[in-house]
Backbone:
């Protein structure tokens, strides 16, 4: 049975393992955490916690480490939901002083999270496929190349660099953009590709070398409507002892490149997931932990921020930090927000 004493010992073990990544023994608990119990009592309770599945014994030490079940209990019942005032102030300054668009704000949030946690952070942006095209803008780079920016009704932007041979001019690109703006404005992004097919005759009669431009814009829209995932601080994983094994590191890097995995990770039946509240989700996959927090932009659109790292990450600090930043994005960029 989980008595108050065993919970106290268990919490100390989790806190120590998060800090050191080393198996924890009774001697460490007595000396470092000043637990008012005898060594024999602590050892007996550690054995009981292991039998209940909250701790695991490693092969290389007599100490114990938390199991996935243990982390789940810790996050469900022992998590301290607090973020200090100084951190809140610094984050508010980032969002309030810099006139960032939504996409840049999400990327900036990832950078802040990776810096503050020394872990890998990620973001799943809103699904652009459900947004509506607002405008296409052209920024010439040279006589035959330009950056084309696609803007949706929610302010989400996506840019593509178009480089063509000498047969395609900036005027051709601009004329094509004008036609697309006139005919596609207000169209749902997921319907743009189909609607563009009907514009082929119009482009053919007004734009020189329309075939190349049609293919370029078609590819851009297909990518625009696909899942968008952004990661920051991927190099931080290299400093975590759990991923010192090159095969584990390769597997993790492959995961970071799979956008569909991150979109669906919380509903994977093989994972152990804990919902800390309506905004956050915690998922464990072996030695890997993913903490995510959603932000809602309107009734139909949402995105989420993530922290990816070892199972022994500092949940007390990471969960409230992640939730605060996602709530701040929602505050500034959501429906009725300050932007």
Residues:
């Amino acid at each position: 049975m989980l008595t108050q004493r065993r919970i106290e010992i268990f919490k100390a073990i989790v806190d120590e393992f998060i800090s050191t990544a080393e198996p924890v023994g009774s001697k460490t608990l007595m000396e470092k955490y000043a637990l008012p119990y005898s060594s024999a009592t602590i050892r007996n309770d550690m054995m009981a916690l292991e039998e209940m599945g909250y701790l695991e014994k490693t092969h290389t030490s007599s100490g114990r480490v938390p199991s996935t079940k243990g982390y789940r209990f810790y996050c469900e019942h022992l998590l301290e939901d607090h973020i200090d005032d100084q951190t809140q102030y610094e984050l508010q300054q980032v969002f309030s002083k810099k006139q960032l668009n939504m996409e840049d704000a999400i990327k900036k949030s990832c950078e802040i999270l990776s810096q503050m946690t020394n872990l890998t952070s990620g973001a799943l942006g809103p699904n652009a496929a459900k947004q509506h095209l607002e405008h296409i803008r052209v920024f010439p780079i040279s006589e035959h190349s330009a950056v084309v920016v696609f803007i949706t009704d929610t302010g989400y932007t996506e840019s593509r660099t178009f480089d063509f041979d000498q047969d395609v001019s900036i005027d051709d690109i601009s004329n094509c953009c004008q036609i697309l703006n006139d005919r596609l404005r207000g169209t749902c992004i997921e319907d743009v590709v189909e609607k563009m097919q009907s514009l082929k005759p119009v482009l053919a009669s007004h734009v020189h070398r329309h075939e190349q431009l049609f293919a370029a814009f078609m590819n851009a829209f297909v990518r625009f409507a696909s899942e968008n995932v952004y990661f920051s601080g991927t190099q931080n994983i290299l400093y975590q002892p759990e991923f010192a094994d090159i095969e584990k590191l390769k597997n993790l890097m492959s995961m970071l490149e799979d956008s569909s995995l991150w979109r669906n990770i919380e509903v994977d039946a093989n994972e152990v997931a804990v919902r800390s509240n309506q905004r956050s989700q915690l998922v464990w996959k072996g030695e890997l932990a993913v903490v995510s927090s959603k932000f809602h932009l309107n009734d139909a659109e949402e995105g989420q921020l993530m922290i990816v790292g070892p199972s022994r990450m500092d949940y007390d600090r990471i969960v409230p930090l992640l939730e605060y930043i996602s709530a701040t994005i929602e505050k500034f960029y959501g429906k009725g927000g300050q932007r």
Remarks:
- The first strand starts at residue 55 and ends at 57.
- The chain is about 45% helix and 20% strand.
- The domain at 85-126+228-333 is CATH 3.30.450.40 (Beta-Lactamase).
- The mean pLDDT is 83.
